[in-house]
Amino acid sequence: MKVLKFGGTSVGSVESLLQVKEILKNELGKKIVVCSAMSGVTDQLVQLLESIRLGDAPQIELKIERLRLRHQELICSLITDQKSRDEFLDDLNGMIRDISKLASQEFTGVLYSRIITYGETLLTSIFSKYLNAVGIHNTLLLAKDFMFVDSIENPNIGKVSVELRELLSKKEKSSIYITQGFVCRDAQGEISNLSRGGSDFTATIIAAAVDAEEVQIWTDIDGLHNNDPRYVNGTKSIPHLSYNEAEELAHFGAKILHANTVFPVVDKKIPILLKSTFDPNALGTVISDSVKSEGLKAISAKDNIMIVELTSKRKLISKNSLQKILRTFDEHEVPVHVISSSRTATSVAIDNNVIIDEILKELENFFSLRLENNKCIISIVGEHIVNDKNLSKFFEISNVVPIKMISFGVNNNISILVDSKYKVPALEFLNKKLFALVEADVQTVLS
Ligand code: ADP
Ligand code: ASP
Ligand code: MG
Predict the structure, then answer these.
(1) Which is it for the CA torsion 192, 193, 194, 200, positive or negative?
(2) How far is the CA of 133 from the centre of ligand 1 (A)?
């Protein structure tokens, strides 16, 4: 069994869905196909949710109608036969009525998840039916029937495995099973979601649950690049990454992978292949258990970070300050991304958007606190990166950008924190210093 995941742009238009159809036809053997919502649809649902929260009835109606039109357009382009088109549109209208009913309910966390995950439900329903209509036999599975998580960091892979295997044994036999990314049930059994971009995570949870031989993540770019292609020109796809490298890059801002994508498949050593839907012959990136080469692989940037500086109140310096700080953040379930520490002061980097009033109240008893917003983490990643022969070039960044924090010593990631306004200049500077230099070295060796 293989797991193939197609992201928002891969399912975002008729042309891209036809491309997905070809990819499915060429991939022999049994597969579970995980689909996202059409690109932009989850954002539309977020806006709809905001109107629901505000109780703005005209806006709710307008936004639901926009959603319906987007999918109606898709159906009308995919299906030419009038009778089956009407059937597709009837089903669509049924789902839209369900969304309207939900939209009239009280705004709660569960309602939020029910609505925000509807993009996946709409798309998979249409695509599965379309494939069956054109003779590509497939069976639709509902993720809410098997995707159980204890928390977003802790998928219940044992339970997913039992439920999914049972479902597969009961459902009509098929070589293609289609399901929704992003959708899950929480520990209370309520509909929840795996956080934005979470369909990648769905794919690896499923792969671990069914002992898949491979996970393929199909997207709009030919693999994981050595720098962020949204901000830097001339980035290149990396042929191979170790699990550690991919995990670091996913966590530290490489948007191509949801931050939690890698860990579910590590123990079972299931490889992840990153491929471009629009250039299927490009090699892409293989992520696996092996370490093919050491040293720098890629640069990434993680946005929306805040630094909390904690200076011990003089008389209270204690041996376990660090422990106290980390325990407090942990107890409030606020992840610390980077930490740097001395005897008298510690800095931690956390997400900007978390509420930390309680944490600050507790820590104020022991430390003087200072907060700095609007930071970003710039990371360079590669196995044994501290031994990379070009490493000193990395530190030249301090000549051009003020560094607020640094974490050095962990073997496969070196991170600095800078003001967000320096993100793009820092990424560009490092690209020139680190990758242009490597290419110059290659030229010297070749000549
Ligand atoms: P999907 O909708 O298929 O899940 P995403 O938009 O989530 O796709 O991820 C793909 C995008 O990730 C690319 O279009 C690219 O702009 C962005 N990206 C950011 N960093 C990297 C990187 N290091 N390598 C490749 N893509 C990256
Ligand atoms: N549709 C969801 C989102 O846009 C999940 C995903 O695409 O992975 O965040
Ligand atoms: Mg994504």
Answers:
(1) positive
(2) 32
For ligand 2, what atom is nearest to the CA of residue 196? 9
Q: Is the pLDDT of residue 339 over 80?
A: yes
Site residues for ligand 1, CB cut-off 6 Å: 7-10, 36, 197, 219-221, 224-225, 228-230, 254-256, 298
Residue 222 CA to ligand 1 centre (angstroms):
10
Residue type, 71: H
pLDDT digits (tens, 9 = 90+) for 152-181: 889 999 999 999 999 999 987 889 999 999
In single-letter form, the type of residue at position 343 comes to R
Q: How far is the CA of 326 from the centre of ligand 3 (A)?
A: 30
| Residue closest to 4 by CA, chosen among 199, 221, 135, 184 | 199
**Are 325 and 310 spatial neighbours (Cβ–Cβ below 8 Å)?**
yes
Residue nearest to atom 8 of ligand 2 (CA): 197
Q: Which tens digit of pLDDT belongs to each residue from 234-285? A: 999 999 999 999 999 999 999 999 999 999 999 999 999 999 999 999 999 9
Probe target for ligand 1 pocket from 221, 237, 257, with the most ligand atoms within 8 Å of CB:
221
| Assigned CATH for 2-220 | 3.40.1160.10
Q: Where are the domains of the chain?
A: 2-220, 298-446
Fold topology of 298-446: VC0802-like (3.30.2130)
